[in-house]
Amino acid sequence: MQRKYLAKIFVTLRPSVLDPAGVAVQSSLKQLGYDNVDSVRIGKYIEVIITEPDERKARQNLDRICDQMLANPVIENYRFDLIEVESQTGVF
Amino acid sequence: MQRKYLAKIFVTLRPSVLDPAGVAVQSSLKQLGYDNVDSVRIGKYIEVIITEPDERKARQNLDRICDQMLANPVIENYRFDLIEVESQTGVF
């Protein structure tokens, strides 16, 4: 039996890495009058739908996908939430 | 009294909008052997720290910041979670 999982993946810069894009947004916000914004950090949010036999296997493959393709482990961290969205019994 | 809030902002393409970057990632994953990935959608994840007197005011300003700067309302949706991280009483 195959199950469909929705992975909500967050890729963020490691705290020690500078984020020039975030600094630029913060500076633009200041010019717009938002001088109460103390920090802006910009990351990626990726939704992946994957078909796997079980959650363990899904987590395993998503870890590999994040390491190989979605995140740069040298400067970025990632984490994901996994939600089962649909089961396929192969009967229909 | 001023409070510090951490806003975790998710900016996603509207479901009806094509995501060429997501399609490219999905296609690359297929070439790497992950042919069980059904869909990839790429959005932004932004962390903002903002100082406001209360949560209502923080939500109001974050809505304006998202509309004006972080999201393109024509093709993107946004939502955010708000967490109070620190209070400043002005005493210290």
Summarize the structure.
Chain A is α+β, with helices and mostly antiparallel strands and 92 residues long.
Features:
3 strands, Mth169, Chain: A, 92 residues, homodimer, phosphoribosylformylglycinamidine synthase activity (chains A, B), alpha+beta, 2 helices, three-stranded antiparallel beta sheet
Q: How would you explain this protein's 3D organization?
A:
The structure is a homodimer of 92-residue chains. Chain A has 92 residues and is an alpha+beta fold. Chain A has a domain at 2-16 and 44-88: Phosphoribosylformylglycinamidine synthase subunit PurS (Mth169, Chain: A). In chain A, 30% of the residues lie in helices and 45% in strands. Chain A has helices spanning 20-31, 55-70, and strands at 2-13, 37-52, 76-88. A three-stranded antiparallel β-sheet of chain A has the order 2-1-3. The termini of chain A are close together. Chains A and B meet through strand 1, helix 1, strand 2 and helix 2 of A and strand 1, helix 1, strand 2 and helix 2 of B. Chains A, B: It is an enzyme of class 6 (ligase). Chains A, B: GO terms for molecular function: ATP binding; phosphoribosylformylglycinamidine synthase activity.
